């Protein structure tokens, strides 16, 4: 007895069957009052502290200076400067240094910003980290009291033929001369002294760095000054008297400020003393 064969379904029949299934599902979803889940844009939360700090116009350089970290810092500098060129950017630095070319990219971006870039050292600012610390806006270059600052000449190495070594040596000498010239400009030290001081690793305390001209003020001491009203973050009133007093310069050039009471609440009309 021959086996019976079922008729094959045509492509049109298959397409109609699929349309019917989708139609029934759509009707059932509509009847239950359900729809696709809402698409909620991701926002910064407690699990994204760097996003929250970026909203406060704070940028962190907390690693070695390389192309990756430089790209991140430069992009954030340009973004914040575009969003509001009238408000300061705070660049916190805890870096052992790194690539000179990557660091010069950050330096150029800082110079391009229309707003002031306040630099704050916490932990260690060494080599290119110290260079960027001193490159902040004058009067707004700060350091935590326990930080260390270290300056030295560029390091490098090369291998190959004699001509290759000569090319690399010339490049290192160019960077050395360029860095010393810029550091001399923002510290006020003669170029010859900067060249002599950077011949070997020179570690400094915040007080020594202030006297040298790399930073302007030290946060947390009896003579602490912070040029941004409200402290490190714009969080309003605080119960901490960590920053003893702040000062700001009005358009007429006169300094006005406020002293802090024991509870840390500003007492308007306080006199700023240098």
What report would you give on this structure?
With 274 residues, the protein is an alpha/beta fold. The chain folds into 2 domains: 55-219, 2-enoyl-CoA Hydratase, Chain A, domain 1 (Alpha-Beta Complex); 228-274, no CATH class. The protein is 38% helix and 17% strand. The protein contains 8 helices and 10 strands. Helix 4 (100-112) links the parallel strand 2 and strand 3 (117-126). Helix 3 (67-83) packs parallel to helix 4. The protein is extended and about 90 Å long. Mean pLDDT is 76; it is low at 29-33, 222-231 and 233-274.
Beta-strand portion reads 15-25%
Count of helical stretches: 8
Q: How many domains is the backbone divided into?
A: 2
What percentage of residues falls in helices of 4 or more residues? 25-40%
Radius of gyration, taken over Cα atoms and rounded to an integer in Å: 30 Å
By CATH reckoning, the class of the largest domain would read: Alpha Beta
Class derived from helix and strand content? alpha/beta
Label the overall shape.
extended
> How many strand elements?
10
- What is the architecture of the largest domain at the second tier of CATH? Alpha-Beta Complex
Main β-sheet, in a few words?
7 strands, mixed
Helix-strand pattern: HHEHEHEHEEHHEHEEEE
CATH-level-4 superfamily name of the largest domain: 2-enoyl-CoA Hydratase, Chain A, domain 1
Q: Overall pLDDT, averaged?
A: 76
Distance between the termini: 113 Å
Any low-confidence stretches, pLDDT <50, length ≥5? 29-33, 222-231, 233-274
Oligomeric composition of the shown chains = single chain
The fold-level CATH name of the largest domain is: 2-enoyl-CoA Hydratase, Chain A, domain 1
């Amino acid at each position: 007895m021959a086996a019976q064969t079922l008729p094959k379904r045509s492509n049109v029949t298959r397409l109609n069957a699929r349309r019917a299934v989708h139609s029934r599902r759509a009707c059932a979803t509509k009847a239950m009052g359900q729809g696709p889940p809402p698409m909620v844009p991701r926002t910064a939360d407690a699990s994204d502290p760097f996003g929250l700090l970026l909203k406060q116009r704070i940028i962190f350089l907390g690693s070695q200076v390389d192309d990756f970290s430089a790209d991140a810092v430069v992009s954030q500098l340009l973004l914040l400067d575009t969003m509001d060129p009238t408000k300061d950017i705070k660049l916190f630095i805890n870096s052992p240094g790194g690539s000179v070319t990557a660091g010069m990219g950050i330096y150029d971006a800082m110079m391009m910003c229309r707003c002031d870039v306040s630099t704050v050292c916490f932990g260690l600012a060494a080599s290119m980290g110290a260079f960027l610390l001193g490159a902040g806006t004058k009067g707004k270059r700060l350091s935590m009291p326990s930080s260390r600052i270290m300056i030295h000449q560029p390091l490098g190495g090369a291998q190959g033929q004699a001509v290759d070594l000569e090319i690399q040596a010339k490049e290192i000498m160019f960077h050395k001369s360029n860095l010393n010239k810029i550091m001399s400009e923002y510290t006020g030290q003669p170029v010859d002294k900067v060249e002599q001081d950077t011949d070997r690793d020179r570690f400094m305390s915040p007080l020594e760095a202030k006297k040298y001209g790399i930073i302007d003020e030290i946060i947390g001491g009896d003579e602490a000054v912070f040029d941004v009203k409200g402290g490190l973050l714009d969080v309003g009133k605080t119960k901490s008297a960590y920053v003893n007093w702040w000062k700001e310069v009005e358009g007429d050039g006169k300094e006005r400020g406020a002293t802090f009471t024991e509870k840390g609440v500003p007492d308007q009309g306080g006199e700023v003393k240098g």
